[in-house]
TrEMBL record, chain A:
Membrane topology of the entry: Multi-pass membrane protein
Its job: Part of the ABC transporter FtsEX involved in asymmetric cellular division facilitating the initiation of sporulation.
Protein name, as recorded: Cell division protein FtsX
TM helices/strands, residue ranges: 21-46, 173-197, 218-247, 267-291
Top-level taxon of origin: Bacteria
Keywords of the record: Cell cycle, Cell division, Cell membrane, Membrane, Transmembrane, Transmembrane helix
Similarity section: Belongs to the ABC-4 integral membrane protein family. FtsX subfamily.
UniProtKB/TrEMBL annotation, chain B:
The protein's role, per its UniProt record: Part of the ABC transporter FtsEX involved in cellular division.
Family matches, as SUPFAM superfamilies: P-loop containing nucleoside triphosphate hydrolases
GO cellular component entries: plasma membrane
Name of the protein in its database record: Cell division ATP-binding protein FtsE
Subcellular location: Cell membrane
Protein backbone atom coordinates (compact mmCIF):
# COMPACT_ATOMS: atom_id res chain seq x y z
CA UNK A 1 0.00 0.00 0.00
CA UNK A 2 1.21 3.46 -0.84
CA UNK A 3 1.92 5.80 2.05
CA UNK A 4 -0.50 8.32 0.54
CA UNK A 5 -3.26 5.71 0.56
CA UNK A 6 -2.48 4.80 4.16
CA UNK A 7 -2.82 8.44 5.19
CA UNK A 8 -6.11 8.63 3.36
CA UNK A 9 -7.43 5.54 5.18
CA UNK A 10 -6.36 6.93 8.55
CA UNK A 11 -8.04 10.23 7.79
CA UNK A 12 -11.27 8.43 6.91
CA UNK A 13 -11.07 6.34 10.07
CA UNK A 14 -10.59 9.38 12.30
CA UNK A 15 -13.44 11.16 10.57
CA UNK A 16 -15.80 8.28 11.39
CA UNK A 17 -14.61 8.09 14.97
CA UNK A 18 -15.43 11.72 15.58
CA UNK A 19 -18.76 11.48 13.80
CA UNK A 20 -20.24 8.85 16.17
CA UNK A 21 -18.74 10.23 19.34
CA UNK A 22 -20.98 8.31 21.71
CA UNK A 23 -20.64 4.98 20.00
CA UNK A 24 -16.89 5.49 19.92
CA UNK A 25 -16.88 6.36 23.60
CA UNK A 26 -18.89 3.26 24.48
CA UNK A 27 -16.64 1.00 22.45
CA UNK A 28 -13.46 2.55 23.84
CA UNK A 29 -14.80 2.18 27.40
CA UNK A 30 -15.65 -1.47 26.85
CA UNK A 31 -12.17 -2.16 25.57
CA UNK A 32 -10.82 -0.15 28.51
CA UNK A 33 -12.62 -2.23 31.13
CA UNK A 34 -11.54 -5.46 29.48
CA UNK A 35 -7.95 -4.39 29.30
CA UNK A 36 -7.94 -3.07 32.87
CA UNK A 37 -8.80 -6.53 34.10
CA UNK A 38 -6.31 -8.00 31.71
CA UNK A 39 -3.62 -5.58 32.87
CA UNK A 40 -4.12 -6.34 36.55
CA UNK A 41 -4.14 -10.01 35.82
CA UNK A 42 -0.98 -9.72 33.80
CA UNK A 43 0.84 -7.98 36.63
CA UNK A 44 -0.50 -10.57 39.03
CA UNK A 45 0.49 -13.51 36.83
CA UNK A 46 3.98 -12.24 36.21
CA UNK A 47 4.50 -11.71 39.92
CA UNK A 48 3.09 -15.06 40.92
CA UNK A 49 5.38 -16.95 38.62
CA UNK A 50 8.28 -14.77 39.74
CA UNK A 51 7.41 -15.42 43.36
CA UNK A 52 7.06 -19.13 42.76
CA UNK A 53 10.44 -19.32 41.16
CA UNK A 54 11.95 -17.26 43.96
CA UNK A 55 10.40 -19.58 46.52
CA UNK A 56 11.58 -22.58 44.58
CA UNK A 57 15.06 -21.26 44.92
CA UNK A 58 14.60 -20.92 48.66
CA UNK A 59 13.29 -24.41 49.17
CA UNK A 60 16.08 -26.28 50.96
CA UNK A 61 16.34 -29.64 52.52
CA UNK A 62 17.47 -29.22 56.11
CA UNK A 63 19.25 -32.30 57.33
CA UNK A 64 19.68 -32.38 61.14
CA UNK A 65 22.79 -34.21 62.22
CA UNK A 66 22.99 -36.68 65.07
CA UNK A 67 23.96 -34.88 68.35
CA UNK A 68 27.16 -36.90 68.73
CA UNK A 69 28.72 -36.53 65.27
CA UNK A 70 32.40 -35.66 64.97
CA UNK A 71 33.74 -33.13 62.52
CA UNK A 72 35.18 -36.03 60.47
CA UNK A 73 31.68 -37.49 60.17
CA UNK A 74 30.42 -34.15 59.01
CA UNK A 75 33.12 -33.76 56.36
CA UNK A 76 32.37 -37.28 55.14
CA UNK A 77 28.64 -36.63 54.66
CA UNK A 78 29.28 -33.33 52.97
CA UNK A 79 31.72 -35.03 50.62
CA UNK A 80 29.20 -37.74 49.74
CA UNK A 81 26.36 -35.27 49.24
CA UNK A 82 28.45 -33.11 46.97
CA UNK A 83 28.97 -36.13 44.70
CA UNK A 84 25.20 -36.70 44.42
CA UNK A 85 24.09 -35.40 40.99
CA UNK A 86 20.75 -34.24 42.43
CA UNK A 87 22.46 -31.86 44.83
CA UNK A 88 23.26 -28.33 43.87
CA UNK A 89 24.92 -27.13 47.04
CA UNK A 90 25.53 -28.11 50.60
CA UNK A 91 26.08 -25.68 53.42
CA UNK A 92 27.00 -26.47 56.96
CA UNK A 93 25.18 -24.54 59.67
CA UNK A 94 26.46 -25.07 63.21
CA UNK A 95 24.09 -24.95 66.18
CA UNK A 96 25.52 -21.50 67.04
CA UNK A 97 24.76 -20.27 63.53
CA UNK A 98 21.23 -21.60 63.91
CA UNK A 99 20.69 -19.73 67.10
CA UNK A 100 22.03 -16.51 65.68
CA UNK A 101 19.66 -16.80 62.75
CA UNK A 102 16.73 -17.43 65.05
CA UNK A 103 17.62 -14.33 67.06
CA UNK A 104 17.69 -12.30 63.95
CA UNK A 105 14.20 -13.45 63.02
CA UNK A 106 12.60 -13.12 66.44
CA UNK A 107 14.39 -10.16 67.85
CA UNK A 108 17.36 -9.87 70.17
CA UNK A 109 15.77 -9.40 73.53
CA UNK A 110 13.52 -12.41 73.50
CA UNK A 111 13.68 -14.16 76.86
CA UNK A 112 13.20 -17.62 75.45
CA UNK A 113 16.26 -17.19 73.35
CA UNK A 114 18.23 -15.88 76.26
CA UNK A 115 17.46 -19.11 78.02
CA UNK A 116 18.47 -21.17 75.06
CA UNK A 117 21.91 -19.61 74.97
CA UNK A 118 23.01 -21.58 78.00
CA UNK A 119 22.03 -25.00 76.68
CA UNK A 120 21.59 -24.67 72.92
CA UNK A 121 19.17 -27.45 71.90
CA UNK A 122 19.49 -26.84 68.17
CA UNK A 123 21.21 -29.55 66.13
CA UNK A 124 24.02 -28.95 63.69
CA UNK A 125 22.38 -28.72 60.29
CA UNK A 126 23.22 -29.23 56.63
CA UNK A 127 21.35 -26.94 54.30
CA UNK A 128 21.05 -28.69 50.95
CA UNK A 129 19.71 -27.28 47.72
CA UNK A 130 18.38 -29.52 44.95
CA UNK A 131 19.48 -29.06 41.35
CA UNK A 132 15.83 -29.27 40.40
CA UNK A 133 13.62 -27.57 43.01
CA UNK A 134 10.69 -29.74 41.91
CA UNK A 135 12.65 -32.85 43.02
CA UNK A 136 13.19 -31.53 46.55
CA UNK A 137 11.04 -34.25 48.10
CA UNK A 138 13.05 -37.10 46.54
CA UNK A 139 16.23 -35.45 47.71
CA UNK A 140 14.88 -35.16 51.24
CA UNK A 141 13.92 -38.84 51.23
CA UNK A 142 17.39 -39.80 50.14
CA UNK A 143 18.74 -38.37 53.42
CA UNK A 144 17.64 -41.54 55.24
CA UNK A 145 20.62 -43.46 53.85
CA UNK A 146 23.10 -41.40 55.88
CA UNK A 147 23.61 -42.67 59.42
CA UNK A 148 24.99 -39.31 60.50
CA UNK A 149 21.69 -37.64 59.73
CA UNK A 150 19.02 -37.90 62.38
CA UNK A 151 16.13 -36.20 60.69
CA UNK A 152 15.23 -33.93 57.78
CA UNK A 153 12.74 -31.29 56.86
CA UNK A 154 11.79 -29.35 53.71
CA UNK A 155 9.26 -26.74 52.58
CA UNK A 156 6.69 -29.13 51.28
CA UNK A 157 4.03 -27.86 48.93
CA UNK A 158 4.52 -24.12 49.37
CA UNK A 159 5.34 -23.52 45.75
CA UNK A 160 2.85 -26.05 44.52
CA UNK A 161 0.07 -24.39 46.42
CA UNK A 162 0.96 -21.00 45.02
CA UNK A 163 1.10 -22.36 41.50
CA UNK A 164 -2.23 -24.17 41.93
CA UNK A 165 -3.87 -21.03 43.21
CA UNK A 166 -2.50 -18.89 40.43
CA UNK A 167 -3.63 -21.42 37.81
CA UNK A 168 -7.11 -21.31 39.27
CA UNK A 169 -7.20 -17.52 39.27
CA UNK A 170 -5.86 -17.50 35.74
CA UNK A 171 -8.70 -19.72 34.53
CA UNK A 172 -11.30 -17.59 36.26
CA UNK A 173 -9.87 -14.38 34.84
CA UNK A 174 -9.62 -15.99 31.42
CA UNK A 175 -13.31 -16.89 31.32
CA UNK A 176 -14.38 -13.53 32.69
CA UNK A 177 -11.97 -11.64 30.43
CA UNK A 178 -13.08 -13.58 27.37
CA UNK A 179 -16.68 -12.59 28.08
CA UNK A 180 -15.64 -8.96 28.35
CA UNK A 181 -13.54 -9.16 25.21
CA UNK A 182 -16.54 -10.52 23.31
CA UNK A 183 -18.67 -7.69 24.62
CA UNK A 184 -16.04 -5.14 23.61
CA UNK A 185 -15.68 -6.66 20.15
CA UNK A 186 -19.43 -6.59 19.77
CA UNK A 187 -19.57 -2.89 20.67
CA UNK A 188 -16.78 -2.15 18.22
CA UNK A 189 -18.54 -4.09 15.50
CA UNK A 190 -21.61 -1.96 16.15
CA UNK A 191 -19.61 1.24 15.76
CA UNK A 192 -18.17 -0.07 12.53
CA UNK A 193 -21.63 -1.05 11.37
CA UNK A 194 -22.79 2.53 11.87
CA UNK A 195 -19.81 3.75 9.88
CA UNK A 196 -20.51 1.34 7.06
CA UNK A 197 -24.11 2.48 7.08
CA UNK A 198 -23.15 6.15 7.05
CA UNK A 199 -20.79 5.46 4.18
CA UNK A 200 -22.97 3.21 2.09
CA UNK A 201 -23.25 5.68 -0.77
CA UNK A 202 -19.52 6.24 -0.85
CA UNK A 203 -18.95 2.52 -0.76
CA UNK A 204 -21.37 2.04 -3.63
CA UNK A 205 -19.53 4.63 -5.70
CA UNK A 206 -16.16 3.13 -4.81
CA UNK A 207 -17.38 -0.24 -6.03
CA UNK A 208 -18.69 1.31 -9.20
CA UNK A 209 -15.44 2.99 -10.13
CA UNK A 210 -13.41 -0.09 -9.30
CA UNK A 211 -11.88 0.47 -5.87
CA UNK A 212 -10.26 -2.76 -4.70
CA UNK A 213 -11.94 -4.65 -1.89
CA UNK A 214 -9.07 -3.97 0.46
CA UNK A 215 -9.12 -0.28 -0.34
CA UNK A 216 -12.75 -0.27 0.79
CA UNK A 217 -12.11 -2.37 3.90
CA UNK A 218 -8.95 -0.79 5.26
CA UNK A 219 -10.48 2.29 6.88
CA UNK A 220 -12.82 0.11 8.92
CA UNK A 221 -10.00 -2.03 10.24
CA UNK A 222 -8.02 1.08 11.07
CA UNK A 223 -11.03 2.50 12.85
CA UNK A 224 -11.33 -0.69 14.93
CA UNK A 225 -7.63 -0.68 15.75
CA UNK A 226 -7.75 2.95 16.83
CA UNK A 227 -10.62 2.14 19.18
CA UNK A 228 -8.51 -0.72 20.54
CA UNK A 229 -5.47 1.51 21.05
CA UNK A 230 -7.51 4.30 22.64
CA UNK A 231 -9.10 1.68 24.88
CA UNK A 232 -5.66 0.47 25.95
CA UNK A 233 -4.29 3.81 27.13
CA UNK A 234 -6.30 4.29 30.32
CA UNK A 235 -6.06 0.74 31.72
CA UNK A 236 -2.37 0.61 30.88
CA UNK A 237 -1.74 3.80 32.80
CA UNK A 238 -3.92 2.78 35.74
CA UNK A 239 -2.27 -0.63 36.01
CA UNK A 240 1.27 0.69 35.92
CA UNK A 241 0.66 3.66 38.19
CA UNK A 242 -1.03 1.56 40.85
CA UNK A 243 1.63 -1.12 40.60
CA UNK A 244 4.29 1.50 41.04
CA UNK A 245 2.42 2.75 44.11
CA UNK A 246 2.24 -0.75 45.60
CA UNK A 247 5.97 -1.22 45.14
CA UNK A 248 6.55 2.18 46.68
CA UNK A 249 4.47 1.34 49.75
CA UNK A 250 6.18 -2.02 50.25
CA UNK A 251 9.61 -0.44 49.91
CA UNK A 252 8.72 2.31 52.35
CA UNK A 253 7.68 -0.30 54.92
CA UNK A 254 11.13 -1.78 54.98
CA UNK A 255 11.58 -4.24 52.20
CA UNK A 256 9.26 -6.63 50.54
CA UNK A 257 9.90 -9.68 52.74
CA UNK A 258 9.00 -12.96 51.14
CA UNK A 259 6.57 -11.13 48.82
CA UNK A 260 9.24 -9.96 46.50
CA UNK A 261 7.62 -8.09 43.58
CA UNK A 262 9.03 -7.69 40.12
CA UNK A 263 10.59 -4.28 39.51
CA UNK A 264 8.75 -1.78 37.26
CA UNK A 265 11.24 -2.31 34.49
CA UNK A 266 10.90 -4.40 32.33
CA UNK A 267 7.46 -5.43 33.62
CA UNK A 268 5.93 -2.12 32.52
CA UNK A 269 7.16 -2.77 28.99
CA UNK A 270 5.48 -6.21 28.87
CA UNK A 271 2.25 -4.89 30.30
CA UNK A 272 2.13 -1.90 27.94
CA UNK A 273 2.98 -4.03 24.93
CA UNK A 274 0.58 -6.86 25.66
CA UNK A 275 -2.29 -4.55 26.60
CA UNK A 276 -1.93 -2.59 23.37
CA UNK A 277 -1.64 -5.70 21.26
CA UNK A 278 -4.72 -7.21 22.86
CA UNK A 279 -6.58 -3.90 22.35
CA UNK A 280 -5.73 -3.90 18.66
CA UNK A 281 -6.73 -7.55 18.36
CA UNK A 282 -10.13 -6.87 19.90
CA UNK A 283 -10.53 -3.85 17.60
CA UNK A 284 -9.66 -5.75 14.45
CA UNK A 285 -11.88 -8.62 15.54
CA UNK A 286 -14.82 -6.25 16.01
CA UNK A 287 -14.25 -4.65 12.61
CA UNK A 288 -14.02 -8.03 10.99
CA UNK A 289 -17.45 -9.03 12.30
CA UNK A 290 -19.07 -6.00 10.67
CA UNK A 291 -17.02 -5.93 7.49
CA UNK A 292 -17.88 -9.57 6.87
CA UNK A 293 -21.56 -9.13 7.51
CA UNK A 294 -22.21 -5.74 5.94
CA UNK A 295 -19.55 -5.32 3.26
CA UNK A 296 -20.22 -8.28 1.01
CA UNK A 297 -18.66 -7.91 -2.41
CA UNK B 1 -15.34 -5.29 -27.40
CA UNK B 2 -18.33 -6.74 -25.57
CA UNK B 3 -19.72 -10.14 -26.53
CA UNK B 4 -22.64 -12.09 -25.09
CA UNK B 5 -23.24 -15.69 -26.05
CA UNK B 6 -26.56 -17.32 -25.17
CA UNK B 7 -26.92 -15.30 -21.96
CA UNK B 8 -29.75 -16.03 -19.53
CA UNK B 9 -30.53 -14.19 -16.34
CA UNK B 10 -32.96 -15.54 -13.78
CA UNK B 11 -33.25 -13.48 -10.60
CA UNK B 12 -33.46 -15.06 -7.18
CA UNK B 13 -37.24 -14.61 -7.11
CA UNK B 14 -37.57 -16.64 -10.31
CA UNK B 15 -38.09 -13.72 -12.72
CA UNK B 16 -36.56 -14.50 -16.09
CA UNK B 17 -35.07 -11.14 -17.09
CA UNK B 18 -32.96 -12.32 -20.04
CA UNK B 19 -33.70 -15.38 -22.16
CA UNK B 20 -30.84 -16.20 -24.52
CA UNK B 21 -29.13 -13.00 -25.58
CA UNK B 22 -26.47 -13.01 -28.32
CA UNK B 23 -24.79 -9.76 -29.15
CA UNK B 24 -21.47 -8.26 -30.15
CA UNK B 25 -20.55 -4.62 -29.61
CA UNK B 26 -17.30 -3.43 -31.21
CA UNK B 27 -14.86 -0.90 -29.88
CA UNK B 28 -15.99 2.71 -30.45
CA UNK B 29 -19.56 1.80 -31.28
CA UNK B 30 -22.52 3.83 -30.00
CA UNK B 31 -25.48 1.63 -29.09
CA UNK B 32 -28.98 2.39 -27.85
CA UNK B 33 -30.78 -0.34 -25.93
CA UNK B 34 -34.55 0.17 -26.19
CA UNK B 35 -37.66 -1.76 -25.25
CA UNK B 36 -40.74 -1.66 -23.06
CA UNK B 37 -40.56 -1.34 -19.30
CA UNK B 38 -39.46 -4.59 -17.68
CA UNK B 39 -37.99 -5.91 -20.95
CA UNK B 40 -34.55 -6.48 -19.40
CA UNK B 41 -32.58 -3.41 -20.49
CA UNK B 42 -31.19 -2.62 -17.07
CA UNK B 43 -30.38 -6.27 -16.50
CA UNK B 44 -28.46 -6.30 -19.80
CA UNK B 45 -26.48 -3.28 -18.60
CA UNK B 46 -25.84 -4.68 -15.13
CA UNK B 47 -24.38 -7.85 -16.58
CA UNK B 48 -21.82 -5.80 -18.49
CA UNK B 49 -20.29 -4.21 -15.43
CA UNK B 50 -20.75 -7.35 -13.39
CA UNK B 51 -23.30 -5.92 -10.99
CA UNK B 52 -25.17 -9.15 -11.72
CA UNK B 53 -23.81 -12.49 -12.82
CA UNK B 54 -25.37 -14.35 -15.76
CA UNK B 55 -27.30 -17.49 -14.81
CA UNK B 56 -26.14 -19.11 -18.02
CA UNK B 57 -24.00 -18.15 -21.00
CA UNK B 58 -20.73 -16.37 -21.61
CA UNK B 59 -19.92 -12.66 -21.46
CA UNK B 60 -16.60 -11.50 -22.85
CA UNK B 61 -15.23 -8.02 -22.21
CA UNK B 62 -12.20 -7.45 -24.45
CA UNK B 63 -11.94 -11.21 -24.69
CA UNK B 64 -12.06 -11.85 -20.93
CA UNK B 65 -14.79 -14.17 -19.70
CA UNK B 66 -16.12 -12.19 -16.78
CA UNK B 67 -17.80 -15.20 -15.24
CA UNK B 68 -14.36 -16.72 -14.74
CA UNK B 69 -12.85 -13.61 -13.16
CA UNK B 70 -12.13 -14.07 -9.46
CA UNK B 71 -14.16 -11.85 -7.13
CA UNK B 72 -11.16 -9.88 -5.94
CA UNK B 73 -10.27 -9.04 -9.53
CA UNK B 74 -13.67 -7.62 -10.41
CA UNK B 75 -12.69 -4.08 -9.30
CA UNK B 76 -9.87 -4.06 -11.83
CA UNK B 77 -12.33 -5.12 -14.52
CA UNK B 78 -14.64 -2.26 -13.55
CA UNK B 79 -11.92 0.34 -13.93
CA UNK B 80 -12.24 -0.15 -17.65
CA UNK B 81 -15.99 0.50 -17.58
CA UNK B 82 -17.57 3.84 -16.68
CA UNK B 83 -21.16 3.69 -15.46
CA UNK B 84 -23.80 6.43 -15.44
CA UNK B 85 -27.27 6.30 -13.88
CA UNK B 86 -30.56 8.08 -14.18
CA UNK B 87 -30.21 9.39 -10.59
CA UNK B 88 -26.52 10.44 -10.94
CA UNK B 89 -25.44 8.82 -7.65
CA UNK B 90 -23.30 11.81 -6.67
CA UNK B 91 -22.10 12.15 -3.09
CA UNK B 92 -24.13 15.05 -1.68
CA UNK B 93 -21.52 16.39 0.75
CA UNK B 94 -18.78 16.65 -1.85
CA UNK B 95 -18.28 19.34 -4.46
CA UNK B 96 -18.30 18.57 -8.17
CA UNK B 97 -14.52 18.52 -8.12
CA UNK B 98 -14.40 16.20 -5.08
CA UNK B 99 -16.96 13.84 -6.57
CA UNK B 100 -14.81 13.37 -9.65
CA UNK B 101 -11.53 13.25 -7.72
CA UNK B 102 -13.05 10.60 -5.45
CA UNK B 103 -13.12 8.17 -8.38
CA UNK B 104 -9.40 8.66 -8.92
CA UNK B 105 -8.56 8.37 -5.22
CA UNK B 106 -10.54 5.15 -5.06
CA UNK B 107 -8.22 3.55 -7.61
CA UNK B 108 -5.18 4.93 -5.80
CA UNK B 109 -4.05 7.50 -8.33
CA UNK B 110 -1.18 9.64 -7.01
CA UNK B 111 -2.44 12.97 -5.74
CA UNK B 112 -0.31 15.08 -8.06
CA UNK B 113 -1.97 13.45 -11.08
CA UNK B 114 -5.50 13.89 -9.77
CA UNK B 115 -5.71 17.65 -9.90
CA UNK B 116 -4.82 18.10 -13.53
CA UNK B 117 -6.90 15.22 -14.77
CA UNK B 118 -10.03 16.28 -12.84
CA UNK B 119 -9.79 19.84 -14.13
CA UNK B 120 -9.29 18.52 -17.65
CA UNK B 121 -12.34 16.25 -17.51
CA UNK B 122 -14.51 18.96 -15.89
CA UNK B 123 -13.53 21.21 -18.74
CA UNK B 124 -14.61 18.54 -21.22
CA UNK B 125 -18.09 18.29 -19.65
CA UNK B 126 -18.29 22.10 -19.44
CA UNK B 127 -18.29 22.46 -15.66
CA UNK B 128 -14.87 23.94 -15.05
CA UNK B 129 -16.47 27.09 -13.61
CA UNK B 130 -18.77 25.14 -11.32
CA UNK B 131 -16.28 22.70 -9.84
CA UNK B 132 -16.69 23.98 -6.30
CA UNK B 133 -20.47 23.68 -6.29
CA UNK B 134 -22.23 20.97 -4.28
CA UNK B 135 -24.63 18.70 -6.19
CA UNK B 136 -27.56 20.47 -4.50
CA UNK B 137 -26.36 23.71 -6.09
CA UNK B 138 -26.32 22.20 -9.59
CA UNK B 139 -29.14 21.61 -12.09
CA UNK B 140 -30.07 18.05 -13.07
CA UNK B 141 -28.20 18.37 -16.33
CA UNK B 142 -25.10 19.67 -14.57
CA UNK B 143 -25.26 16.88 -12.03
CA UNK B 144 -25.44 14.33 -14.82
CA UNK B 145 -22.41 15.92 -16.44
CA UNK B 146 -20.51 15.58 -13.15
CA UNK B 147 -21.45 11.92 -13.03
CA UNK B 148 -20.26 11.45 -16.61
CA UNK B 149 -17.01 13.20 -15.72
CA UNK B 150 -16.64 10.80 -12.81
CA UNK B 151 -17.30 7.80 -15.05
CA UNK B 152 -14.74 8.99 -17.60
CA UNK B 153 -12.00 10.32 -15.36
CA UNK B 154 -10.12 7.02 -15.22
CA UNK B 155 -10.18 6.68 -19.02
CA UNK B 156 -12.36 3.58 -19.39
CA UNK B 157 -12.83 1.92 -22.79
CA UNK B 158 -16.57 1.60 -22.18
CA UNK B 159 -19.20 4.03 -20.99
CA UNK B 160 -22.42 2.35 -19.94
CA UNK B 161 -25.47 4.45 -19.14
CA UNK B 162 -28.88 3.40 -17.84
CA UNK B 163 -31.40 6.06 -18.92
CA UNK B 164 -28.98 8.95 -18.45
CA UNK B 165 -31.58 11.47 -19.64
CA UNK B 166 -34.48 9.90 -17.76
CA UNK B 167 -34.75 12.74 -15.24
CA UNK B 168 -33.90 15.61 -17.58
CA UNK B 169 -35.88 18.07 -19.69
CA UNK B 170 -35.33 17.95 -23.49
CA UNK B 171 -32.78 20.74 -23.55
CA UNK B 172 -30.59 19.23 -20.85
CA UNK B 173 -31.08 15.81 -22.41
CA UNK B 174 -29.64 17.05 -25.69
CA UNK B 175 -26.65 18.57 -23.89
CA UNK B 176 -25.96 15.19 -22.35
CA UNK B 177 -26.34 13.46 -25.72
CA UNK B 178 -23.87 15.79 -27.41
CA UNK B 179 -21.46 15.12 -24.60
CA UNK B 180 -21.84 11.34 -24.98
CA UNK B 181 -21.37 11.65 -28.72
CA UNK B 182 -18.21 13.68 -28.15
CA UNK B 183 -16.90 11.03 -25.77
CA UNK B 184 -17.74 8.36 -28.35
CA UNK B 185 -15.90 10.10 -31.14
CA UNK B 186 -12.81 10.13 -28.93
CA UNK B 187 -12.88 6.34 -29.03
CA UNK B 188 -14.96 5.23 -26.04
CA UNK B 189 -17.63 2.61 -26.65
CA UNK B 190 -21.01 3.94 -25.45
CA UNK B 191 -23.93 1.68 -24.54
CA UNK B 192 -27.05 3.43 -23.31
CA UNK B 193 -30.48 2.16 -22.30
CA UNK B 194 -33.16 4.73 -23.05
CA UNK B 195 -36.87 5.46 -23.38
CA UNK B 196 -36.24 8.70 -25.26
CA UNK B 197 -37.88 8.32 -28.68
CA UNK B 198 -36.93 11.75 -29.97
CA UNK B 199 -33.24 11.29 -29.24
CA UNK B 200 -33.03 7.80 -30.74
CA UNK B 201 -34.84 8.89 -33.89
CA UNK B 202 -32.80 12.07 -34.31
CA UNK B 203 -29.27 11.13 -33.30
CA UNK B 204 -29.19 7.94 -35.36
CA UNK B 205 -27.05 5.10 -33.99
CA UNK B 206 -27.19 1.34 -33.69
CA UNK B 207 -30.41 0.28 -31.94
CA UNK B 208 -30.82 -2.99 -30.00
CA UNK B 209 -34.46 -3.65 -29.04
CA UNK B 210 -35.14 -6.01 -26.14
CA UNK B 211 -38.54 -7.53 -25.39
CA UNK B 212 -39.17 -10.05 -22.64
CA UNK B 213 -35.49 -10.74 -22.29
CA UNK B 214 -34.83 -11.41 -25.96
CA UNK B 215 -33.23 -9.20 -28.63
CA UNK B 216 -35.97 -8.70 -31.21
CA UNK B 217 -34.23 -6.13 -33.39
CA UNK B 218 -30.66 -4.97 -33.98
CA UNK B 219 -30.16 -2.29 -36.65
CA UNK B 220 -27.47 0.22 -37.58
CA UNK B 221 -28.99 3.74 -37.81
CA UNK B 222 -32.10 2.22 -36.23
CA UNK B 223 -35.32 3.78 -35.03
CA UNK B 224 -36.88 3.79 -31.60
CA UNK B 225 -39.89 1.83 -32.78
CA UNK B 226 -42.26 2.18 -29.81
CA UNK B 227 -45.06 4.63 -29.02
CA UNK B 228 -44.43 5.67 -25.40
N1 LIG C 1 -32.85 -7.37 -8.50
C1 LIG C 1 -33.94 -7.95 -9.06
N2 LIG C 1 -34.53 -8.97 -8.44
C2 LIG C 1 -35.61 -9.56 -8.97
N3 LIG C 1 -36.17 -9.21 -10.10
C3 LIG C 1 -35.63 -8.18 -10.80
C4 LIG C 1 -34.49 -7.49 -10.30
N4 LIG C 1 -34.16 -6.52 -11.18
C5 LIG C 1 -35.07 -6.61 -12.18
N5 LIG C 1 -35.94 -7.59 -11.95
C6 LIG C 1 -37.01 -8.01 -12.85
O1 LIG C 1 -36.44 -8.37 -14.08
C7 LIG C 1 -37.21 -7.89 -15.15
C8 LIG C 1 -36.37 -7.00 -16.05
O2 LIG C 1 -36.03 -5.85 -15.32
P1 LIG C 1 -35.11 -4.66 -15.89
O3 LIG C 1 -34.87 -3.74 -14.79
O4 LIG C 1 -33.97 -5.27 -16.58
O5 LIG C 1 -36.10 -4.02 -16.97
P2 LIG C 1 -35.91 -2.67 -17.79
O6 LIG C 1 -35.99 -3.04 -19.20
O7 LIG C 1 -34.71 -1.96 -17.34
O8 LIG C 1 -37.20 -1.86 -17.36
P3 LIG C 1 -37.37 -0.27 -17.25
O9 LIG C 1 -37.49 0.23 -18.64
O10 LIG C 1 -38.63 -0.10 -16.50
O11 LIG C 1 -36.20 0.27 -16.54
C9 LIG C 1 -38.39 -7.18 -14.54
O12 LIG C 1 -39.49 -8.08 -14.52
C10 LIG C 1 -37.96 -6.87 -13.15
O13 LIG C 1 -39.05 -6.87 -12.26
MG1 LIG D 1 -34.29 -0.16 -16.35
Amino acid sequence: MKIETLFRHCREAFRSLTRNTWMTFAAVSAVGVTLLIFGFFLVFAFNISFMASELDKQVNVRAFLQPNVTSDDIDQVIGQLKKDPAVKSVKFQSKEDGLRQMKKQWGDDDRILKGLERGNPLPDTLVIKAKNPQKTKQLADSMDQYSQIADKDYGEGVTNNILDLSAWIRDAVFVFGLGLAILAAFLISNTIKLTIFARRREIEVMRLVGASNWFIRWPFFIEGSIIGILGAIVPMTVTLVSYNAVIGILDANGGQGIFKLLPMWPLSLYVAGMTTILGIMIGVWGSMISVRRFLRV
Amino acid sequence: MIEMHDVYKVYGNGVKALNGVNVKIDQSEFVYVVGPSGAGKSTFIKLMYRQEKPTHGVILINGVNIKRVRDWKIPYLRRNIGVVFQDYKLLPNMTAYENVAFAMEAVETPRRKIRRRVQEILELVGLYDRMNALPSQLSGGEQQRVSIARAMVNNPSFLIADEPTGNLDPENSWDIMYLLEEINTRGTTVVMATHNKEIVNTMRKRVIAVEQGVIVRDEQQGEYGYED
